[in-house]
Every structure is written in structure tokens, then in C-alpha cells.
Amino acid sequence: MATLHHSSFCPHSRFVRLIMAEMGMEPHLVEERPWERREEFLMMNPAGTTPVLVEEGGLAVPGASIIAEYLDETRGLGLSGLRLLPESPAARVEVRRLLDWFLQKFDQEVTGYLVTEKIHKRFMTSQHGGGPPDMNAIRAARSNVRYHLKYIGYLISRRNWLAGSQLTYADLAAAAHLSCVDYLGDVPWDEDEMARNWYARVKSRPSFRSLLTDRVAGMAPADHYADLDF
Amino acid sequence: MATLHHSSFCPHSRFVRLIMAEMGMEPHLVEERPWERREEFLMMNPAGTTPVLVEEGGLAVPGASIIAEYLDETRGLGLSGLRLLPESPAARVEVRRLLDWFLQKFDQEVTGYLVTEKIHKRFMTSQHGGGPPDMNAIRAARSNVRYHLKYIGYLISRRNWLAGSQLTYADLAAAAHLSCVDYLGDVPWDEDEMARNWYARVKSRPSFRSLLTDRVAGMAPADHYADLDF
Asked: For B169-200, what is each residue's pLDDT tens digit?
């Protein structure tokens, strides 16, 4: 059985949990606090970030987009009709463009700020950067999330799923990031109905269930968080 | 003929120029100033970043790592002995891990600061963020580059090239980033001989030549910049 070193509210870890659930894989989950820089964890991933997938034979695969490529190459062909990274070069470019959009850009402009300031800082010692949240960072993220939501709405007004006619890694990455922001109540869903309907579709998939049961100690999710008809 | 929209001192653009030269491709080059957010350019890449490769048929491929994957899938198999993204799953993981290391981590900790503060700010209007360089950012980058250089030295003490026995995308990405920092004279080469020897090997490849002739208007490179025996 493969092992996934993850952090429950790390959006990149959530993306990989979604991929593996869609592929019918049930990894052994190990919760990491990356800021503690555990030595064994750094041996698996010198960059010190979650997630890291470790195969039964010992191969460590670090980083969400690298794991996504790896799983497509080693498991994806078995999915026939439901390949999460499609076959044609142009379709692969579009999926990877949007993967980058959400794993890098959305993370830098929205999720990174909110998850660090509102969640992880609660569990960090002051030595590791813990302390009260930086309200400027939170305000910036809340402002930025609005144009990303519009962009999702724009894409979904022209396509069935974010990158085209089929569900792909792009949908799972975007939804994984949004799920963290949604836990915190910071997605203004009433501003874009197309985006909301798309998220409701992704959220209703069986692969999403385990994400919706995770809780931050001492911090309840937004009321509608686990509600499939929000 | 393919067109590459690039910026001469954007390290990601330099990486793609190296790949294409190694593959024997000679793209038509179009210099972009991404901060000007030219409308036609944003249509090709809504994220507004360089590089963007445009195929003769019109397909736009945005972003260095996406272009690298695309070129491997559409041209790489033709390289037989010199495939820049090797075949085996474990080797691909290692190349992609190091690609991420240099394209993301090194960029965020070193190149991004230096190129923005010392080069791009000279050409930006104040409206686009131009102005005098932020010395704190430059100091941080100069401090960070030292441990990256050690890491390169550590890898090269155990392997012929960064990711293993063959030249791969990892070497080209790392060298592309270092070439920008080296232009500015900010690589402390005397701190790591292994790293310096590795860089001299990459820099001596014919694919590197065109990078070494680029100049920033009004700013000469470090003395040894174009010297293959520095």
C-alpha cells in the first residue's frame, strides 16, 4: 500500500487525496507539520513541503504536480474513459496550464495566505512563525479570491468542466484549493452562480467525502462546508 | 516555425531557449515586457507571464514547465540518446523534483528578487512598479543563493549531472536561473568548486551561446559572464 505524507488543510495534499480517491487508491495517510522540518521527512523531500507519496517499494514522489504526472504515467492508462490528464497534446497543455494556475497562482494569491494565517499559525510555535494572523494578508486573499471565482465562472460558461468536456486534474486542483478557503467561509459563492454549480458538482463526488469530514482542532467550518446543496 | 514570446533575462524563458537549442529548434523570438500586460499576450497566456511558445498552427503553450512537458511529448522521442526527460518513472520524478526546485524555489528565493530589483525595475514605469531596487530583497537573495550553490555541489559530488548520469531538464533549468544571477555578479562561485565545474560544463554547450550574448541596456555583465573558463 502506498503512503501519503500530507497535511489536512494543505490544498496540495488535498488535491492528491482527490486524485488517489478518483483512481480507487486508498493510501495510508501520515499527517505532517512541514514547519517542524522532521528529519525523516526532509530525506523524502529536501524542499520540506507536503504532500509526498511513498510507494510500497520505497520510491518517494514529492510535490503535488509531480505526483499528478507520476500517477498519470503509472496508473492513469488504467482509467480508460476517465483519464484525468487527457491524451491530446493541446488538451494536456490546457490541463497543465490550469493546474499551474491553481497550484501556483491561486496558492500565492489566496490559499497560501489564508491557510497559513488562519490555520497553520495556530499550531506553530513562535519559533516556527506562529502568532496572531496578519490581517493584511487575509484581506488581500479575500480580495483576490473574487477574480479567481469569476475566472472559474467564465471557463464553466464555455465548457462542461474547467479544462474541457471531461473532469481532469484541473477541476480537482481548483476544488482542493477552494475547499480550504470554503472551510474558512471565505469564498463569496453568491458572486458567481456558474462557479458555485461547478463546485457543487465536484464536491458531490465520492472522492470528496473524506476531505469534508476533516476538522481543524478548535475551529468549526463554515456552516455550508459539508453541505452538498449549499 | 514556432515563435517564443520571451524576456531576455527571464530565467524561465532562458530555460526554454536552452531546451529548444538542445532539440535543434530555432524559434522566432519575440521580446515581451510582461508587466505591460499587452492584450494579445494575455490572450495567449491569461497568467501574463513569460515564456509562451506558439506553434506554427497557432497552439499557445504557456509556462516553462508546461512547455518542457509539451516538447518532451511532441519532440523528445526524436532525441534518442539525449532525451531531456528520461524514460523511467523514478528518473522522471527526480528530474521533475529538481525542475520544481529551480523553477519555483530558487526563483522565489533568489532569481525573482534579483532580476526584478536589479534589471526589470530599470525598465518599468513607476505605475508598473519601477523605481530604485529594494536592497533588503537583494540581500536576501544573495544570502539564499549560497545554500542553493552548496546543494548543486552536493548533487554533483554524487552524480555526473544534477538528476543522474545524463544531462536533463534539471541541468538546463538550474543553469538558466544561475545565468541571470551570474550576469549580475551575484554567484559566489569560489564557495563551491563542484558547482562551478558543473556550470562550466553546461555553459560550454552550443545551446548556451545565444544567452551569453544578450545584454541589459546600460548594464554590463560581470567580467567572467561570457568566459567559458571562468
From this structure: 999 999 999 999 999 999 999 999 999 999 99
Smallest CA–CA separation between B104 and chain A, in Å? Answer: 9
Partners of residue A53 on adjacent β-strands: A4, A61
The Cα A139–Cα A114 span in angstroms is 9
Domain at B148, CATH number: 1.20.1050.10
Residue of A nearest to B69 (CA): A93
Indicate whether this complex's ipTM tops 0.90.
yes
On chain B, the residues whose CB falls within 8 A of the CB of A100 are 47, 63, 65-66
Asked whether residue B174 is assigned to any structural domain, the reply reads yes
**Cα distance from N-terminal residue to C-terminal residue, chain B:** 35
Q: Which residue of B has its CA nearest to A96?
A: B66
B145 and B128, same structural domain?
yes
Q: Which residues of B touch A59 (CB under 8 A)?
A: 89-90, 93
Nearest CA in chain A to B71: A89
A48: CATH: 3.40.30.10
**Is residue B157, in this structure, part of any structural domain at all?**
yes
Q: Quick one: A61 and A155 in the same domain?
A: no
> Do residues A96 and A203 both lie within one domain?
yes
Contact in structure between A19 and A66 (CB atoms under 8 Å)? no
Nearest to B97 among A62, A96, A100 (CB): A62
Asked if the model's pLDDT at residue B13 lies above 70, the reply is yes
- Name the phi and psi angles at B151, rounded to 5: -65, -40
DSSP, collapsed to helix, strand or coil, labels residue B5 as: strand
- The number of beta carbons lying within 10 Å of the beta carbon of residue B63 is 26
Range of the domain at A77: 3-82
Question: Does residue B95 surpass a pLDDT of 90?
Answer: yes
Tens-place pLDDT, residues B32-74: 999 999 999 999 999 999 999 999 999 999 999 999 999 999 9
Instruction: Return the C-alpha cell found at A227.
Output: 453541505
Percent pLDDT > 90 in chain B is 93
C-alpha gyration radius of chain B = 17
Mean of pLDDT values over B7-32: 97
Rounded-to-integer distance, Cα A85 and Cα A77, Å: 10
